[in-house]
Design brief:
82% helix, mainly alpha, 2 domains, Growth Hormone, Chain: A, single chain
Length: 413
């Protein structure tokens, strides 16, 4: 009975964080459904629309550490509520867009800022604060898995409204769903009332500059952030260019949609598994194993002529290895630096991930335009992924993770 009473204040926080992440990520992942009708209706190019999405990713990545610092100073609730309001405003701008400026501001700038306030960085930081250490990794896996479920709701609604009433109706459908982020953020914001337990802050309530400096002087964090860059590059290369690759190979266009859907489904399983595994084995070593496995699967698929069967197997395997990195990175940051500056320092790592995402999407297109094939792009993705994974595993095994204060004390002595 005492355990149930202790859980009561935590459950609304975790549900709020999960729903907030699920809606913010699910809506964002469904924008491709409106790309074709939108660009044709308001006479902009596909590259104009994808540039807006690139701006969205960069704004999300670069503002994540800023938003994390604001959460420390102002509290999680006001930051997340502001992000939810910006998400609604961005979709409203997009629904009324008549040119590239409206698309860039709505889908790019506003929603990019909103994602920094409501997506994985903030949701996992909230989850980390709300639960004790012994179950933290599993809970982070559960929250990450929820991030894949939003697309299963948003995509059918957006697709149906777009087909029946046009792309603006589809965006308004997204807007109606986005309103649900507001109450979710409110409930998740109850985490501000939780007092951090003794010993939860390895670097304490220091200044922002000092906290960033500590992170940038911590070798395990630098290695993890560098490997996270390669992670983002691989994932955005796949989501951006897999449909084009399948079309070039003459396969059914529906196969790419089926593959992306299968990635989302198996991502739920992978997130749960790696959340569980991170509570039992080295999180940094598990990250390296994900990067190695993902690179081997990528190499296997692109070395063979694609078929519907191999494409769906590839999607299932990649889905399992997709966002399992989320709970492992978030948990590693807590172990290194504690909870006080968790959102900001995790944001620094995520900024590296988003730079890699930009390179994976844009660089893959440049290489294809220059060479007429994706051969060099996928070979680079495989080799960089294997290198990052091997370095991550070796570093994790040779230098077991220690809190930043212990590392600093060891250096001082």
């Amino acid at each position: 009975m005492a355990g149930i009473i202790a859980l009561r204040p935590i459950v609304p926080i975790l549900l709020g964080a999960a729903v907030m992440l699920s809606l913010s990520m699910g809506l964002r992942q469904s924008f491709g459904l409106i790309m074709q009708p939108l660009t044709q209706d308001i006479a902009i190019t596909i590259s104009d629309f994808t540039l807006a999405l690139a701006v969205q990713n960069l704004a999300w990545g670069f503002l994540q550490p800023v938003v994390g610092a604001l959460a420390v100073r102002l509290g999680f609730r006001p930051v997340m509520l502001a992000g939810a309001a910006l998400y609604v405003a961005g979709l409203l701008l997009l629904a009324n867009a008549h040119g590239v400026v409206g698309v860039m501001l709505g889908a790019g700038v506003f929603i990019g800022i909103a994602l920094a306030c409501t997506a994985s960085g903030m949701a996992l930081a909230v989850g980390s604060r709300a639960v004790p250490r012994v179950v933290r990794s599993m809970v982070l896996g559960l929250i990450t898995a929820a991030g894949s479920l939003g697309a299963l709701l948003a995509a059918p609604i957006g697709q149906t409204l777009t087909v029946d009433f046009g792309w603006r109706a589809g965006v308004l459908g997204f807007l109606a769903l986005a309103l649900g982020i507001l109450p979710a953020a409110w409930f998740a914001g109850r985490v501000d009332k939780i007092v951090l337990p003794p010993g939860a802050d390895q670097i304490g309530e220091t200044s922002i500059k000092a906290a960033i400096g500590t992170a940038l002087r911590t070798p395990p964090f630098i290695i993890m952030a560098g490997a996270y860059f390669v992670c983002g590059m691989q994932l955005l290369f796949i989501t951006t260019h897999l449909p084009s690759y399948l079309a070039i190979c003459g396969l059914d266009p529906m196969l790419s949609a089926e593959a992306l859907g299968l990635i989302s489904l198996f991502n739920v399983v992978g997130s749960l598994f790696f959340g569980w595994a991170g509570g039992r084995w080295s999180k940094l070593a598990l990250l390296g194993m994900i990067y190695i496995s993902r690179s081997l699967v990528l190499g296997w698929y692109f070395m063979l002529p694609p078929t519907p069967a191999t494409t769906l197997v590839f999607a299932a395997l990649m889905g399992f290895l997709w966002l399992g990195v989320g709970p492992l990175v978030a948990g590693s940051v807590v172990e290194m630096f504690g909870l006080h500056w968790h959102a900001m320092i995790q944001g620094l790592a995520f900024m590296s991930h988003q730079l890699g995402s930009f390179l994976g999407a844009f660089g893959g297109g440049l290489l294809f335009d220059a060479l007429g094939s994706y051969d060099l792009a996928w070979r680079l993705g495989v080799s960089m992924g294997l290198t990052a994974g091997i370095v991550q595993v070796m570093f994790a095994l040779l230098r077991p993770l220690q809190p930043a204060t212990q590392t600093a004390r060891g250096s001082a002595s």
